[in-house]
Every structure is written in structure tokens, then in C-alpha cells.
């Protein structure tokens, strides 16, 4: 096993996560199997209870792990499936050590940071690095490790010490350190300054680690004399200094690494440059095409993002990426109009009329409206008003998690005339309670007590837009993160009033997808489709939103289904293409003979 450690210096927010992901992309393009680990030095066990304002969005994995948003970058860039163990936190490490101490594993010993905490960190890395994450058998070839925070932070000291010991444990040729640092330009002087990076590397060396590769962040490409100076004072060969200057989109970062031969520097340190299975040059034609295509997009599509964390885009990072993936696929230039939901409310018209006017202008000028997930009652009325506007004016609407629940509440109030309809999350005495607390949830503990991770949704309505977007699949697996759900006892009333619940769980008691059949595109999903969107494989629901917002929905639906209903006879024998990957071919053949497909998909012979 080979290890690549990515650290950061000078300031936070330099893009270590994107750098680590891009290194993984380039190594994968060289024919290597790659896994990743993110180390977060905070004391929280996981990111589940952290505010988006504190740490950006909480990314959810298939196994229900609530993790740092950088793991989302890893999954999107590398098209892999990680587990909760791929995110190490100080809380997890100390909890593991304390549990061992209580069991008596250290009986007679004084439990200390060194060696017990540092050993636990190293053991964790070695154990998790061996787990395949690409769907293939056997361990990966390379593990890319990102150390969160900045070198010199007090909370990361045990990890730095552990990683120093770890480099010695795995030995030369198995460990490569990539240090991401800042080369700023002071406006007064107007030249690129190397001193911050020099001090950062000096601090790294004092802690027992020496960089093999320098990844220098800057606004413009590094000047030649700056690279020479960095090489001289940081003791890194010029060939191992990589410049990650600002680019038009992050898909250019792997291309920057490739063009500057960063893969050759890393492979040389890892003693892999002569391995027979590693191509001399990484194959990144798809990335090149995607990055170039993005830069050439001209026709805009405006999506109004209605939420309460609009002041920090990282709060909705996966949603933004899913919108971007879909807009590029539909050849549209994405324009996101941030609409604070509070500013849409009537109270805002009195307290801040300018903000109220601006919010409504953005909403009414949008081609599509998206209400993402969230918690708490702040701004809920504004989200309800956004859903109402979309429904009444035939504007494409996608509601995710809370966004779906909001749409249900609005429908109950406006169409069914149930003025007191609400969620018990916002009003415990709501009459009627359209959205209720899930029976298996906990009202005393917040962390890891929601319905989390990958769950299966079954389609129940033939020809609905959602099923068609998913290629007429009978079921889909998507990731969840919620503790409230649509009240199943009210579903018959909703359906009689015209709201369709086209997707349900295996019990048919938990509502997963809603649609308004008479609307151009009005869909709500209890799950979070953004978590599984990939640059080359956009989320179907996001594709649908962008297509509807840009007048391309019907052609998209036709393309989605065009290859799914082809059957023919050969010498009197029925032949069938595997229309639904989730349904065995034998089952599909029996359904063909009987003249229908299971679960109401309605493909007839």
C-alpha cells in the first residue's frame, strides 16, 4: 500500500480537498486504484450535529455516515463509495482509545497521547486504507490522506505526530507528502511572496515531516524566479513544485497537475514510476472535454435556491455540484440566484422592504426553483410561499427533504383548504399534522439518530416523470437524512386532491417522491439525490429540473426511455433486453408474458 498525505499551510480554505481529490483523479488515470481518508481534528464524533455555518454541509454516505463535505469531493471526483470510517475525527480516535481502556486492553498501562492515541490513528489509517471503495475486489493501490486544518494548529498535533511515525512505519518509497501552501501577492508590492510558504514548510519540518511535493496556490501562474526561490529555501526540487493557480472551474485542477507532471513526481517518490501497469501519461480525455465544455457554455439557466443558509454556499455544496453536473449535461450555463427564505415572508416586507422586494424579484425571474433540505422553523413560511408560487405559475420546482415536506404542507393549505396544516417539527399541536416525527427517531439524542444512508424507493405510478427520469426503473437507491416524514394516514386524502405519491419505501407507509401530474415539473423527494450525483453521471432529478427550466424536458424523457422498451421475436422466441437493472431478467420475461411489468411500470407487449 502506498500513501499520499496532503497537508495545508499559511491559511485554511486553500482547497486541500479539491487538491487531494485531483491527485486521486490523476493517479486513477494512471491505472491505479485509489481510496481516500479525511482527517478532521475536531472533537466531534462526526459532522452530524454541526451547523452548516460552522463547517459547511454535512455529506451523507451509503452506510449512513455523516461526514465532512470533502468526502463528497472525493466521491464525485473519483466516482467511489466511501464509508464512515474514511472520515477520522479526534472524537472517534479518543472514543476508541477510551473504549479499549475500559475493556482493559491497556491493563496496567498509563494511557497517553503517545503512544496510544498516535498508535490508534496509525492503525485506523492502515485498516481503512485496505478496504476497496471502487466496487472491485482486493485492496486499493494508493490511499490519499487529507489532514484538515493548518499546520501548527494545536488540535492537529497528535495527528501530525502520528503521521510522522507512520511515514517511518511504512518506510521509504511508500509515503509521499504533498504540502499545499499560499503564494500571495501584496497589492502594495505587486509581486508574489514566498515567505509564508517558507515559514509553513519550516513549521512542518519542526514537527517531523518534510514535503516531497509543494502545491502552491496563487491567483496567477508562478513566475520562474519564484519557483527557484521556493525550491532553494524549502528544499524541494523544482520539478516537484506544482502551481495551482486560479482557474475557471475546478475540473481544470487535475489537468493542471497532469500538465505539470505532478503524477511523475508522486510516482517517483512512491517508487511506482516504472511499474508495468502504470501508463506513462494519465488518460484524462473525459476531464479535458468536460472542463472545456463548461468554459464554452453561453445560454444561461437561472435557478432560485430558496434556503436559510444562503450566506454560505458551502452549506449547499452537493446541491450546487448536482445542479452544475446537470446544467453541463444539458448544455446550459448555470446561474444560481440565492434567495433567503426569510426575505420572502410578509414580516420581511415590514422590517426590510428592500430585501423583501429583491427576494421576490429573484424568485419571479428564475427559470426553476429549488428548495433544499434543512432543519428548524426559521424561514419555513418563505419556503412555503416559494412552493406556492412555483405550483401556481407552472414554474419547475424541485423540493429536497424539507423541500418536499414544504410542498406537501402548501398543498394541504392551498388546495385542500386545511389552514392549520403543518409539520410537528414547527408546530407540535398542528391540526392536521401533515408531517410527523418518525416512530424510530430519538427526541433526546441528536447525533446519528435520524433515518440515514442508502434506502430503496419503489415507483408506484406508471409513466410518472420521476420513474422516466430514472430510465423507467422499478426502484432506486438514494441517500436519506431526516427525522420527520409525511403522515401516511393523510396520503389517501392528498391523492384524492390530486397530489401523487409516486415513490414509496418497501412498506408503502413511508412517502419518498411526490409529483403534481398536471404541472410542467413539480417534484419533491424525501431523499437527497445530490449526494450521488457525479460529473459524468448527473442525478436524474436534477437533470429533470434543469431540462424543465430550459425547455428540454420532453426530449430528455424520451431519451431516458428510448432504449428501455425494445423487445422482439427471433424464430418464434421472445427476446428481452434487461430493461430494469434492479429486476431479474426472468422476472421481466414473466411480466412480458403476462402483459405488464411489476410495480405499475406499465410496459406492455
UniProtKB/TrEMBL annotation:
Reaction equation(s) it catalyzes: UTP + L-glutamine + ATP + H2O = CTP + L-glutamate + ADP + phosphate + 2 H(+)
Gene3D superfamilies for this protein: 3.40.50.880, P-loop containing nucleotide triphosphate hydrolases
Lineage top rank: taxon: Eukaryota
Stored Pfam families: CTP_synth_N, GATase
Keyword match Transmembrane: no
Domain CTP synthase N-terminal: 2-272
Domain Glutamine amidotransferase span(s) in chain numbering: 313-546
Keyword Cell membrane annotated: no
CDD domains linked: CTPS_N, GATase1_CTP_Synthase
InterPro entries assigned: Class_I_gatase-like (IPR029062), CTP_synthase (IPR004468), CTP_synthase_N (IPR017456), GATASE (IPR017926), GATase1_CTP_Synthase (IPR033828), P-loop_NTPase (IPR027417)
PROSITE patterns: GATASE_TYPE_1 (PS51273)
Matches recorded under NCBIfam families: PRK05380.1, PyrG
Classification via HAMAP family: PyrG (MF_01227)
Function description: Catalyzes the ATP-dependent amination of UTP to CTP with either L-glutamine or ammonia as the source of nitrogen.
PANTHER family: CTP SYNTHASE (PTHR11550:SF13)
Entry protein name: CTP synthase
Organism for this UniProt entry: Panicum hallii var. hallii
Highest classification ranks of the organism: Eukaryota, Viridiplantae, Streptophyta, Embryophyta, Tracheophyta
Amino acid at each position: 500500500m502506498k500513501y499520499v498525505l496532503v497537508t495545508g499551510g499559511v491559511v485554511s480554505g486553500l482547497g486541500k480537498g479539491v487538491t487531494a481529490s485531483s491527485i486521486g483523479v490523476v493517479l486513477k488515470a494512471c491505472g491505479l486504484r485509489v481510496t481516500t481518508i479525511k482527517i478532521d481534528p475536531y472533537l466531534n464524533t462526526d459532522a452530524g450535529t454541526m451547523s452548516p455555518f460552522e463547517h459547511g454541509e454535512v455529506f451523507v454516505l451509503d452506510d449512513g455516515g455523516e461526514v465532512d463535505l470533502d468526502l463528497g469531493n472525493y466521491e464525485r471526483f473519483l466516482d467511489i463509495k466511501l464509508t464512515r470510517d474514511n472520515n477520522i475525527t479526534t472524537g472517534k480516535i479518543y472514543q476508541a482509545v477510551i473504549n479499549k481502556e475500559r475493556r482493559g486492553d491497556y491493563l496496567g498501562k498509563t494511557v497517553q497521547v503517545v503512544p496510544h492515541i498516535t498508535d490508534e490513528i496509525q492503525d485506523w489509517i492502515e485498516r481503512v486504507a485496505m478496504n476497496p471503495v471502487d466496487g472491485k475486489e482486493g485492496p486499493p493501490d494508493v490511499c490519499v490522506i487529507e489532514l484538515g486544518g493548518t499546520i501548527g494548529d494545536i488540535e492537529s498535533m497528535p495527528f501530525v505526530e502520528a503521521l510522522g511515525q507512520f511515514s517511518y512505519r511504512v518506510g521509504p518509497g511508500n509515503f509521499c507528502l504533498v504540502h499545499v501552501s499560499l503564494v500571495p501577492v501584496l497589492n502594495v508590492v505587486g509581486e508574489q511572496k514566498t515567505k509564508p510558504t517558507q515559514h509553513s514548510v519550516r513549521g512542518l519540518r519542526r514537527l517531523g515531516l518534510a514535503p516531497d511535493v509543494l502545491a502552491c496556490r496563487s491567483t496567477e501562474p508562478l513566475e520562474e524566479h519564484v519557483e527557484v526561490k521556493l525550491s532553494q529555501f524549502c528544499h524541494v526540487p523544482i520539478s516537484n513544485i506544482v502551481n495551482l493557480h486560479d482557474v475557471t472551474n475546478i475540473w481544470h485542477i487535475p489537468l493542471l497537475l497532469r500538465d505539470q507532471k505532478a503524477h511523475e513526481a508522486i510516482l517517483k517518490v512512491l517508487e511506482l514510476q516504472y511499474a508495468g501497469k502504470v501508463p506513462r501519461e494519465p488518460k484524462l480525455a473525459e476531464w479535458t472535454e468536460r472542463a472545456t465544455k463548461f468554459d464554452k457554455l453561453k445560454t444561461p439557466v437561472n435557478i432560485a435556491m430558496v434556503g436559510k443558509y444562503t450566506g454560505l454556499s458551502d452549506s449547499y455544496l452537493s446541491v450546487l455540484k448536482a445542479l452544475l453536473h446537470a446544467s453541463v449535461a444539458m448544455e446550459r450555463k448555470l446561474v444560481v440566484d440565492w434567495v433567503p427564505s426569510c426575505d420572502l415572508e410578509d414580516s420581511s416586507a415590514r422590517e426590510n422592504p428592500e430585501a423583501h422586494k429583491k427576494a421576490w424579484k429573484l424568485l419571479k425571474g428564475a427559470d426553476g426553483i429549488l428548495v433544499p433540505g434543512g432543519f428548524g422553523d426559521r424561514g419555513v413560511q418563505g419556503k412555503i410561499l416559494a412552493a406556492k408560487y412555483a405550483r401556481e405559475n407552472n414554474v419547475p420546482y424541485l423540493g429536497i427533504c424539507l423541500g418536499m415536506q414544504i410542498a406537501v404542507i402548501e398543498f394541504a393549505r392551498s388546495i385542500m383548504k386545511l389552514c392549520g396544516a403543518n409539520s410537528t417539527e414547527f408546530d407540535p399541536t398542528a391540526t392536521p399534522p401533515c408531517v410527523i416525527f418518525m416512530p424510530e427517531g430519538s427526541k433526546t439524542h441528536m447525533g446519528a439518530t435520524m433515518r440515514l444512508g442508502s434506502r430503496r424507493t419503489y415507483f408506484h405510478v406508471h409513466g410518472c416523470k420521476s420513474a422516466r427520469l430514472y430510465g423507467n426503473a422499478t426502484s432506486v437507491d438514494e441517500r436519506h437524512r431526516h427525522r420527520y416524514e409525511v403522515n401516511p394516514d393523510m396520503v389517501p386524502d392528498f391523492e384524492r386532491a390530486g397530489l401523487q405519491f409516486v415513490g414509496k419505501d418497501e412498506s408503502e407507509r413511508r412517502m419518498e417522491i411526490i409529483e403534481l401530474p398536471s404541472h410542467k415539473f413539480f417534484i419533491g423527494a424525501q431523499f437527497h439525490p445530490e449526494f450521488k450525483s457525479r460529473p459524468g453521471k448527473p442525478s436524474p432529478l436534477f437533470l429533470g429540473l434543469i431540462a424543465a427550466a430550459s425547455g428540454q424536458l420532453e426530449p430528455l424523457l424520451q431519451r431516458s426511455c428510448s432504449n428501455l422498451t425494445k423487445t422482439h421475436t427471433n424464430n418464434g422466441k421472445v427476446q428481452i433486453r434487461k430493461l430494469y437493472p434492479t429486476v431479474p431478467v426472468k422476472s421481466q420475461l414473466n411480466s412480458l408474458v403476462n402483459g405488464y411489468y411489476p410495480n405499475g411500470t406499465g410496459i406492455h407487449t
